[in-house]
Specification:
Number of strands: 2
Radius of gyration: 22 Å
Distance between the termini: 72 Å
Strand content: under 5%
Mean pLDDT: 85
Low-confidence stretches: 1-13
Order of helices and strands: HHHEEHHHHHHH
Number of domains: 2
Strand order of the largest sheet: 1-2
Length: about 190
């Protein structure tokens, strides 16, 4: 270690120095705890982050596969969830986050909408197969409106244009077009 070499004091691996974890965690997470106790300390923040991402309909695309934030963060530690939320907030601030998810029926998140109402499955083929069994009655019973269907169609058309290799966007856009037509759209 050289006294006038600031890099000799740098945390080059990105981990806080042993013995200074309380300080690092206090600065980054606002909890004065060591790493062994950080996950427990972040329970409330992680729950709030999950809820906020769910309310905002945050979708994560990795290797051309799009999933809800709940699906992406399932099994992650509270620290990983809080870090992911911080990353989402930063990217949103920097204009790197796509527009929000279209509206859904009341008390429903994107995952429930896709799985329980639209039943679009995974991939274009499953969404296209669903077109054959979709009915106006089930859409209305689940609170889907013509405007919702149109906005979801447009959302998936834009997603297909943004990520051409997306394995489900085209099929879902076609399914939502069918829903739009069943509800009186053209």
């Amino acid at each position: 270690m050289v006294a006038d070499d600031p890099e000799s004091f740098a945390d080059l691996d990105g981990h806080c120095w042993w013995g200074f974890q309380h300080i690092c965690n206090g600065i980054k997470y606002h909890h004065w705890v060591d790493d062994a106790h950080l996950n427990k300390a972040l329970e409330k923040e992680a729950a709030k982050a999950l809820d906020e991402m769910r309310k905002n309909g945050v979708q994560v695309t990795i290797k051309n596969e799009t999933m809800s934030s709940d699906e992406y963060l399932r099994g992650k530690t509270n620290k990983e969830i809080v870090d992911a939320y911080s990353d989402y907030q930063y990217r949103k601030l920097m204009g790197q986050v796509q527009g929000g998810v279209p509206p859904m029926p009341p008390n429903m998140g994107p995952s429930q909408f896709g799985k329980n109402v639209m039943k679009w499955g995974r991939g274009d083929a499953e969404a296209r197969a669903r077109i054959q069994s979709l009915t106006r009655e089930e859409l209305e019973k689940n609170g889907v409106t013509k405007e919702m269907a149109k906005q979801w169609r447009d959302f998936y058309q834009a997603e297909k244009a943004r990520v051409p290799g997306n394995p489900s966007a085209a099929g879902r856009a076609e399914l939502m077009q069918k829903a739009y037509e069943l509800l009186g759209g053209e």
